[in-house]
Design a protein that fits this description.
- The protein has two domains: about 1-180 and about 235-265, NAD(P)-binding Rossmann-like Domain (Rossmann fold); about 200-230 and about 265-339, UDP-galactose 4-epimerase, domain 1, CATH 3.90.25.
- The chain is about 40% helix and about 15% strand.
- It contains eleven helices and 13 strands.
- A seven-stranded parallel beta sheet has the order 3-2-1-4-5-6-11, sandwiched between helices.
- β5 (about 120-125), α6 and β6 (about 170-175) form a beta-alpha-beta unit.
- It binds uridine-diphosphate-N-acetylglucosamine.
């Protein structure tokens, strides 16, 4: 079985390639390396013993994309990760986000239609729920007005895929991720933020290792037990495994609808301070942090109702918060020794 993984040298993509290979899938990566590095392919090979095929081009380019599909018209499925993901940047440069995230999706869908490729797994985000009224948040919670162009590209992409599925043979599983963190146990692949990280966990590990002087905790006046915001953090390998299950479900025609949507989280909410304390415990490091004002656009509390994914996919996240933080720390330390 042959799977295209777009964005396969990226953070979640690279972990998914490894999990696919473990299950015997042949993988082709397409990535334009705009936010990742070609040597990730070597690392994947080091972990799995199998070198995935890799083509470097931009999926927003219709010519290169159709040329690729002409040569690879026998794909059994596509997992589409390739997208920009920085919320703040999307606010400052919305066209960059719409052009890239929507443009690449349209090119992929057009070629799926042309070549009769049926199975698509799409990276979506819990950001589509905004601040849900009911927690934990289930897949049928209302989609709220997006808070950023980035979030809007996820909402629009879900709609484009759904509309396309109505008039073609395209089927899709839309995976709404909560907060992916951590790294592979080998510490050979992990998150590689370019510049200053926006997300909490890379900021914690970079502060602890001395790259950043101080972590700012955004807000301590939320309506939560310790006043800091709550998220559902999920280990990236748990998340990667859900993609394998999803693609197998589609290939085996086990899906119940042409479009299926699953939340991928652990179902547990942790506050920012709990994440920091878990980090301090597993790393034996004291973290330099300071409480500051809320970050605009942040929601107060969000965590997943995972029962649909658990029951229907037969998948459940396994790793604890401590395990996630330890793997993130081991990855940061491995990066330092390589420098
Ligand atoms: C963010 C995006 C979300 C996107 C996801 C992708 C925003 C508003 N949301 O989610 O749309 O899908 O990343 O990974 O950017 N925090 C600190 N100090 C920091 C960094 C974060 O206190 O230096 C806090 C945040 O306020 C939040 C929590 O840590 O409460 C998690 O933040 P983050 O890792 O950025 O994820 P989200 O904001 O949940």
């Amino acid at each position: 079985m042959k799977i295209l993984v777009t964005g396969g040298t990226g953070y979640i993509g690279s972990h998914t390639v490894v999990e696919l290979q473990k299950k015997g899938f042949e993988v082709i990566i397409v990535d334009n390396l705009s936010n990742s590095f070609a040597n990730v392919v070597d690392k994947i090979e080091q972990i799995s013993g199998i070198r995935p095929a890799f083509e470097e081009f931009d999926l927003t380019d219709p010519g290169s994309t159709s040329d690729f599909f002409e040569r690879n018209n026998d794909l059994d499925g596509i997992i589409h990760f390739a997208a920009y993901k920085a919320v703040g940047e999307s606010v400052n440069d919305p066209l960059k986000y719409y052009r890239n995230n929507i443009g690449s999706l349209i090119n992929i869908l057009a070629n799926m239609k042309t070549y009769g490729i049926e199975n698509l797994v799409f990276s979506s985000s819990c950001t589509v729920y905004g601040q849900p009224e009911i927690l934990p948040v289930s897949e049928d919670s209302p989609i709220l007005q997006a808070m950023s162009p980035y979030g809007n590209t996820k909402q629009i992409s879900e709609e484009i895929i759904t509309d396309t599925s109505l008039v073609t043979n395209v089927k899709a599983i839309l995976l709404r991720y909560f907060n992916p963190i951590g790294a592979h146990d080998s510490a050979l692949i992990g998150e590689l933020p370019l510049g200053v990280p926006n997300n909490l966990v890379p900021f914690i590990t970079q502060t602890a290792i001395g790259i950043r002087p101080l972590l700012r905790v955004f807000g301590s006046d939320y309506n939560t037990h310790d006043g800091t915001a709550i998220r559902d953090y999920i280990h990236v390998v748990d998340l990667a495994q859900a993609h394998v299950v999803a693609v197998e479900r589609m290939i085996n025609h086990a899906g119940k609808k042409k479009i299926e949507i699953f939340n991928l989280g652990t179902g547990n909410g942790f506050s920012v301070l709990e994440v920091i304390h878990s980090f301090e415990k597993v790393s034996n490091e004291k973290l330099n942090y300071q409480i500051v004002d809320r970050r605009p656009g942040d929601v107060e509390i969000v965590y997943a109702d995972t029962s649909f994914a658990n029951d229907e996919l037969g998948w459940k996240a396994q790793k604890t918060l401590d395990e996630m933080m330890l793997s993130a720390w081991n990855w940061e330390k491995a990066l330092k020794t390589k420098k």
